């Protein structure tokens, strides 16, 4: 998928993933290598110290990873489904206000597709940084995704 498909990825995720709508996630830059997704400050999703709840930040980061995976492999949906296999998140600093997640694909698309073409079920990492509006990184997440072939 090209960068031109960027609005459609955000729309598609909002249409198919209820938590994207619930949290009001906003999709910015989306390419086959990187996706940027923001979550506005919403008191309904604050934690006990007044910032975004850890679960909301996890969902933000996972959604950003899903956006880059769809941009990179959306043209393969006819033969494989992308699935998150496991994730690890570290909360680094207090997050207050709006936060933005930047997800980056950890392997070249061609390498992942070569494994899929060879009949394998490839796994690949997506690394995500969550930052406050002042640029301070408040969290880091690593998600392992797979492309599970149909059938």
TrEMBL record:
A Pfam family: DUF4442
UniProt cross-references to CDD domains, sorted A to Z: PaaI_thioesterase (cd03443)
Transmembrane segments: none
Top-level taxonomic group: Bacteria
UniProt-recorded name of the protein: DUF4442 domain-containing protein
The organism of origin for this protein: Streptomyces abyssalis
Highest classification ranks of the organism: Bacteria, Bacillati, Actinomycetota, Actinomycetes, Kitasatosporales
